[in-house]
């Protein structure tokens, strides 16, 4: 601790350089934490799906519809307790940048199916079910656009063309962290009425009587439609969510790569800065050695400088990322519900900062330690 | 008859420059008595500064021994030498060599950071040293806020703050005007007479040499007078 003033004084020798180097480390670790959190949020989302719910989708691709006639046949499969269905709508509000999750679903059965994942007041539930043009929205989405109960909201369809006006009759609160509050749900019938010859369910959701029946039910469903024109692919909701995460696999790789590239670039900046700083002080190393400072102490002092820059940058960068996203309620338009910087990401960030300190400080620290006092003092002449 | 504090026995120092061997000392024998104030004079390249470096343990002899008090300086490891230097040697350079980012107080405190003294004890020692060199009121000043003479006095305070066995000075008045040089020399005389410090000073300046009790002349590594 008694050497702290010496380390601090050396850091403050070139305030601007120290600030810029620390700021670059801050930015690098902020970006790292942000990109890493996209991956961890996607992975977390894949883990929260229910094991007792199954998704039945087209075996051809998720963009293909399944016949409405499957509803009754699915309900008759042994082990199935309830069935509901939905369609992805994909509308925008006023401007293309106001894109969020919107889908059409069969209201009553869908709300029953997901009653454990969010809360909706009974009167709002009843109002929503009763009115064909009604919709329910998540609290976060309502706040984001300043909507209120009873307000008419017009979305522009991106898949189903035209203007679609819904009346907000309910606001739900997610009880599951990974269940998005940035979504809008309206009646499947409204979609069907406008496109009767086109629209059918995009996917079915099955409630199992017992989660242990999952593989049995999946096999029964898929074999039932195997030779039809619309074969199915059935899996648990968790597996369904995980498949979305897998689709993001390349994105994860890309984000990891970008994150590492940024950190590496900053490493070069920090290392260059540390070496420049050490080179300017060769004669001072000679003076300190003459005074009696030992090689290992000089090594430690240079490493302490590198450590303060890297860890200072890490604390700010990671701290801002940890605090900022929850404060602004960032969810990437509802596609990353529960977006947060996890303790694991913070620990990884600190680990990177330690490596950054070691890598940027090692060369100048070793140079300072190995330099003989006479050599260093000669640098002065 | 005073006891020898520094003893150089059969001292040989050579190095190579551009593959050419250069012999600085070849079997030099020399003693500096405890409590003496010696000026080392001689032309450039005569080995004056090399001699100071060898006594301070900053450089190693090719052959022969350097003894300071009970310590065989030439036989110590690098780590032991650094620790010994912190305790027993005060070194003053021609160009002061204060750390520009530290105040006068912090510069003087540097050798004490290597001791087990408490913060309070270190503060007392630094204030005493700055008082001896007459700069108590400049403790909070940075080197750039001091004159050359004041900087050199701070450097002397740094050299004496740990109460070393010997003070080595490499042309301490080389960059000072006459008035500042006289102040520094008077200070050195006081340290020698009042505090009984053993001082070895390299200088080109006959006026500076006159302040010392003894003057030795080196030429091509050989004592000439």
Give a brief rundown of this model.
The complex is a heterodimer of chains A (381) and B (225). Chain A has helices spanning 4-11, 15-47, 70-75, 107-113, 122-130, 139-145, 188-194, 214-224, 237-247, 249-279, 282-291, 295-328, 343-370, 373-378; strands at 53-58, 80-88, 91-93, 101-105, 118-119, 134-138, 152-157, 163-174, 183-187, 203-208, 232-236. Chain A has 381 residues and is of the alpha+beta class.
Report on the architecture of this protein.
The complex is a heterodimer of chains A (381) and B (225). Chain A folds into 2 domains: 4-45 and 249-378, no CATH class; 60-230, no CATH class. Chain A is 55% helix and 17% strand. Chain A has 14 helices and 11 strands. Chain A has helices spanning 4-11, 15-47, 70-75, 107-113, 122-130, 139-145, 188-194, 214-224, 237-247, 249-279, 282-291, 295-328, 343-370, 373-378; strands at residues 53-58, 80-88, 91-93, 101-105, 118-119, 134-138, 152-157, 163-174, 183-187, 203-208, 232-236. In chain A, strands 1, 2, 3, 4, 5, 6, 7, 8, 9, 10 and 11 form an 11-stranded mixed β-sheet that branches. In chain A, a hairpin with a 5-residue loop joins strand 7 (152-157) and strand 8 (163-174). The model of chain A has no long low-confidence stretch (mean pLDDT 88). Chain B is an alpha/beta fold. Chain B has one domain (37-58, 78-223): Rossmann fold (3-Layer(aba) Sandwich). In chain B, helix 4 (119-132) packs across helix 5. Chain B is built from 7 helices and 10 strands. Chain B starts with a strand and ends with a strand. The chains are: A alpha+beta (381), B alpha/beta (225).
Q: How do the helices and strands line up, and which of them pair or pack?
A:
The complex is a heterodimer of chains A (381) and B (225).
Chain A: H1 4-11, H2 15-47, E1 53-58, H3 70-75, E2 80-88, E3 91-93, E4 101-105, H4 107-113, E5 118-119, H5 122-130, E6 134-138, H6 139-145, E7 152-157, E8 163-174, E9 183-187, H7 188-194, E10 203-208, H8 214-224, E11 232-236, H9 237-247, H10 249-279, H11 282-291, H12 295-328, H13 343-370, H14 373-378
Parallel strand pairs in A: 4-9, 6-8
Antiparallel strand pairs in A: 1-10, 1-11, 2-4, 2-10, 3-7, 5-8, 6-9, 7-8
Chain B: E1 4-17, E2 20-33, E3 37-41, H1 48-56, E4 63-68, E5 71-72, H2 78-88, E6 89-92, H3 104-109, H4 119-132, H5 148-160, E7 166-170, H6 178-193, E8 198-202, H7 206-211, E9 214-219, E10 222-223
Helix pairs in contact in B: 4-5, 5-6
